[in-house]
Specification:
12 helices; 0% strand; 245 residues
Length: 245
């Protein structure tokens, strides 16, 4: 990998995003609006919002970053841009790292907006540090970016990229412990949930909500989510095709 080429790729992606206000709105505003909607849905039961709001603070950015990243990357492939870039002295690692850096910068802004809104405007009550909450939200957004980059290699159209969402996101959403404690699930489903990164993202948020200090479980959850993001990015670089099928 070459740092200069990676930075140049990230700068190019950011310039393109600047001219795509719909994608920017999807990444920055949708998680914020969904959290606000959730707060008013549970207007008569603020404790319920406190119970699931922190978890969704990580889940919403993951989903939106997955959608935007997979579609944006696929659009570059179908237009022939990726093929032309890879014909230059640009490695697959440089390309994937550049995309991850660009969308990661957007993820930082997204996480700041969503966390700030949840804590200071919507009244989300957390026992732990808001910075730890922000850290998990950011890692979740980066994980969504990595998953989007990875699945875009297997889609032939934007519609197919969206179709990957039920296969990649929905099972994690059902098994992450948001709707039912993982310990109460069928043993097979509990075992599956133990290897899904979203489970650790939700567990990390729960640790922040219920503990004043950083716990060993929180450190484990954060490391697992970060390791999964790095692993998926590496798989994305390995599966990136030089030619458009």
């Amino acid at each position: 990998m070459n740092a200069a080429r990676t930075a140049a790729t990230a700068a190019r992606v950011l310039r393109q995003l600047r001219h795509d206000p719909r994608s920017i709105a999807l990444m920055l505003l949708v998680p914020v609006l969904m959290l606000a909607l959730l707060r008013f849905v549970f207007d008569g039961s603020p404790r319920t919002f406190d119970g699931i709001g922190a978890s969704l603070l990580g889940i919403f950015p993951l989903i939106t970053m997955f959608l935007v990243t997979s579609i944006a990357t696929l659009r570059e492939r179908t237009s022939g841009t990726l093929e032309r870039l890879l014909a230059m002295p640009l490695g697959k690692g440089d390309l994937i790292a550049g995309y991850a850096l660009a969308f990661g910068a957007v993820a930082v802004v997204q996480s700041l907006l969503a966390t700030g809104l949840a804590l200071w405007l919507l009244g989300l009550d957390v026992v732990g540090s808001p910075w730890l909450l922000l850290l998990v939200a950011l890692l979740d957004a980066l994980l969504g970016t990595a998953l989007g980059l990875f699945v875009s290699a297997f889609a032939a159209s934007e519609f197919q990229a969206v179709q990957f969402m039920p296969a990649v996101i929905f099972p994690q959403l059902l098994l992450c412990g948001l709707f039912a404690a993982r310990s109460t699930m069928h043993p097979v489903l509990e075992a599956v949930s133990d290897v899904l990164p979203m489970s650790y993202a939700v567990d990390g948020m729960t640790q922040v909500v219920t503990h004043t200090d950083m716990t060993a479980d929180f450190v484990r959850d954060v490391l697992v989510v970060a390791a999964c993001a790095l692993l998926v990015l590496a798989l994305g670089a390995a599966t990136l095709r030089r030619r458009t099928p």
